[in-house]
Specification:
Elements (H helix, E strand, L loop, with lengths): L3 E4 L2 E4 L4 E7 L8 E7 L6 E7 L4 E3 L7 E6 L4 E6 L8 E11 L2 E6 L3 E6 L1
Parallel strand pairs: 2-11
Antiparallel strand pairs: 1-3, 3-8, 4-5, 4-9, 5-6, 7-8, 9-10, 9-11
Length: 119
């Protein structure tokens, strides 16, 4: 089990920046992949960015070049630096931890943090 707590959301004007952080309740060394997802009103939850235990990253096309995901295994945290924010980035952002042991994969989710970008 791992609990995830997000922080750093808020209200920002278009073109601004925010940094989201996700703190895990235990070591994330064994977590295969950490990531950020978002869900806007009336839309499905979508992947924003992921980072593997080895540091490989993946981004949604809509955020490439603007967002950067990073993980600090010593502090058990994952961060999402968001620059050049757009109103379309408005959503609840969720931290995700995906752990695979043998053939079983378990997803853990945080409670979410609201990001609102005004035009």
């Amino acid at each position: 089990q791992v609990q995830l707590v997000e922080s750093g959301g808020g209200l920002v004007q278009a073109g601004g920046s925010l940094r989201l952080s996700c703190a895990a309740s235990r070591s994330i060394l064994s977590i295969n992949r950490m990531g950020w997802y978002r869900q806007a009103p009336g839309k499905q939850r979508e992947l924003v960015a992921t980072i593997t235990a080895g540091g490989s990253t993946n981004y949604a096309d809509s955020v490439k070049g603007r967002f950067t995901i990073s993980r600090d295994n010593a502090k058990n945290t994952v961060s999402l630096q968001m620059n050049s924010l757009k109103p379309d980035d408005t959503a609840v952002y969720y931290c995700n931890a995906k752990q695979t042991i043998m053939v079983r994969t378990t997803d853990y989710w945080g409670q979410g943090t609201q990001v609102t970008v005004s035009s």
